[in-house]
Amino acid sequence: MAKAPAARKAEPLTPNRERPDEPKPYKASKEELLDFYKQMLLIRRFEEKAGQLYGLGLIGGFCHLYIGQEAVAVGLQSALTEKDSVITGYRDHGHMLLCGIPPQDVMAELTGRQAGISKGKGGSMHMFSVEHKFYGGHGIVGAQVSLGTGLGFSHKYKGDGGVCLAYFGDGASNQGQVYESFNMAELWKLPVIYVIENNQYAMGTSVNRSSSEDQLYRRGESFRIPGIQVDGMDVLACRGAAEEALAWVRAGKGPIILEMKTYRYRGHSMSDPAKYRSREEVQAVRDKSDPIEHVKKLLEELGAKEDEFKKVDQEIRKVVNEAADFAEQTPEPEPSELYTDVLVEKY
After folding, report:
1. Who has the most CB within 10 Å: 34, 52, 192, 298?
2. Number of H helices and number of E strands within the chain?
3. Strands 192-198 and 164-169, how do they pair?
4. What SS3 state is found at 79?
5. What CA–CA distance (Å, rounded) separates 113 from 26?
6. Rounded distance, CA 262 to CA 198, Å?
């Protein structure tokens, strides 16, 4: 009887593709830390004022505030250059401010005024500015991922060296178009950084109840897209992750996913009472992980005094209040504006 061949031993697994290095927190100077502090505080005070105007009926439709998540956009966008583009969903006010759009132009858009960045036609969710390389503000959940992939294609086609930063949330991460975009972006090695702003509750359902794989940075594995999970409440961790991601994409290695673990203090929108979580939970995050307070403590360790912080807060409140006053006083669009910018007849 023939002897059975000896069973082959399984060979040890070897990594079949390169991966980015684990990012390190950005080493910021005191001046850079102060700049991060000012930018995050501007977003927070702006959003607080927007919430007030919404309550007064001066902002119509939906209004999604970014309070609590400021470190994500500030950390990431501080690493961008003027060649790069940004696209996001409807929680977009802070991203626009960081793209260099004046607060009064953003606030005027929120109140539907002619002087708004989109002539009062976009409102809170649909603002847009090609001049500032900000491509929306999108109300359809996940739509910006496909559009951001197109922006990445545009950067590669033109050879302009730019990268698209495409933000979306933990809720949008389950959309089918997200995975079609991943597949295309990796096949074509497009310069896109997919940023999942995981605020853990989407529209009101905990991520671990709605997602079978709740470690969202792994979502690109089957497309060979590497992912990194980042503390989205730490602006220095966010900036460090941005540096690593940009180096990867600019080297022509294709897209990358950054899962930013963050937390929003308010409901999904101004009309959301947020009864799916306790006040104690929200307060605990505020007390332990607030991104602005974290940077304030770092600045205090470098010698910054309370008087300096008060002065910064006064200056930022003045800017925000002036933006709100402008938004209330500037005129609404003429009725004829209903018929402009509707159809592009020539390309």
Report:
1. 192
2. 11, 5
3. parallel
4. coil
5. 39
6. 6
Whether residue 219 contacts residue 213, with contact meaning beta carbons closer than 8 Å, is answered with yes
Model pLDDT, residue 12: 58
Q: What angle do CA 176, 268, 104 make, to 5 degrees?
A: 105
Span 67-88, pLDDT tens digits:
999 999 999 999 999 999 999 9
Could you read off the pLDDT of 182-194 as tens digits, one per residue?
999 999 999 999 9
CA-based R_g, the chain, Å = 22
| CA nearest neighbour of 267 among 207, 206, 203 | 203
Give the span between the Cα atoms of 307 and 105, in whole angstroms: 30
Query: Under 8 Å CB-to-CB from 125, ≥6 apart: which residues?
Result: 61, 62, 64, 90, 92, 137, 138, 139
**pLDDT over 70 at 1, yes or no:** no
Residue (of 189, 161, 322) closest to 255 by Cα position: 189
The alpha carbon torsion through 23, 239, 43, 280 (nearest 10 deg) reads 20
pLDDT of residue 339: 87
Which residue type sits at 23?
Answer: P
Q: Does the pLDDT at position 11 exceed 70?
A: no
**Considering only CA atoms, which of 322, 306, 241, 299 is closest in space to residue 34?**
299
User: Do 42 and 316 form a contact (C-beta atoms < 8 A)?
Assistant: yes
Residue 316: other Cβ atoms inside 10 A: 20
The mean pLDDT value of the chain amounts to 94
pLDDT band at 161 (very low <50, low <70, confident <90, very high): very high
Calculate the alpha carbon distances from 6 to 1, 71, 132 in Å. Answer: 15, 58, 66
Task: Give the predicted TM-score (pTM) of the model.
Answer: 0.93
Strand-pair partners of 257: 194, 227
* Cα pseudo-dihedral 110, 116, 119, 125, rounded to 10: -30
